[in-house]
Amino acid sequence: MLYLSTMSGPQVHQAMQAGRLGAMMTPDQGYAKNRFDEIMWAADNGCFTNPDRSLSSYLRFLAAFSAQAKRRCLFATAFDVVGDHEATRRRAIPCLTPIRNIGFPVAYVAQDGIESDERLIPWDLIDAIFIGGTTDWKLSSTAKAVALEARRRGKWVHMGRVNSWRRYRYASTFCDSADGTFIAFAPDRNLAQVLRWSELHNTNLRLPIDFGMA
Questions:
Q1: 79 CB-near residues (< 8 Å, 6+ apart)
Q2: Could you give phi then psi for residue 152, rounded to 5 degrees?
Q3: Spatial separation of the C-alpha atoms in residues 106 and 153, rounded to whole Å
Q4: Distance from C-alpha of 171 to C-alpha of 165, rounded to nearest angstrom
Q5: pTM of this prediction exceeds 0.90
Q6: Can you list the domains of the chain with their CATH numbers?
Q7: Smallest Cα–Cα separation from 4: which of 188, 177, 157?
Q8: Among 3-12, 23-32, 54-63, 74-83, where is mean pLDDT lowest?
Q9: Which of 108, 112, 140, 193 is the most buried (most CB within 10 A)?
Q10: How does residue 213 score in pLDDT terms, banded at 50, 70 and 90?
Q11: Are the CB atoms for 214 and 67 separated by under 8 Å?
């Protein structure tokens, strides 16, 4: 399982360049976009910190990346509302085709309540499932069932807010990638820990078919 982090210093960036980590990028981060040409990464919409973000501004952010960086991107998340599947669906549906049209695989963020109408997940319009939601829901059998169905359909599966070995070990049993802020809190110490997690409990990286490695 690939762990995605922020670029918290040169050692973290070097680990990303070596393929040992990936990066998570939001519109609110100021990293130079050309740094994403040679690493694996994903784009998160940042709606948690900026719920009023417009789709047009998000698309401008994504469109500014190079063709090479787009080929290296695992997914870009559609808009979501934490803990609310109904509200997430309303916000996400208008995002899916526009994100794909500018060259990004698109991720639908699964939230609490998705079990009420799981059949309404727009499977044909998405490339990935992002397991979001509250902590209790994220660790529920329902969330795992959604992830396993996504894998059955050939979709990439990602889990957010993975900041401990216990959570990493759990996510790695059915996810392709995960992200967290664990490294950012103390990069000098926590980078080594995350790389050790990968060594202790990694599986073969299941890359999307069209993910450019050249």
A1: 45, 47, 53, 55, 58, 88, 91, 92, 95
A2: -60, -35
A3: 15
A4: 10
A5: yes
A6: 2-200 (3.20.20.70)
A7: 177
A8: 23-32
A9: 108
A10: very low
A11: no
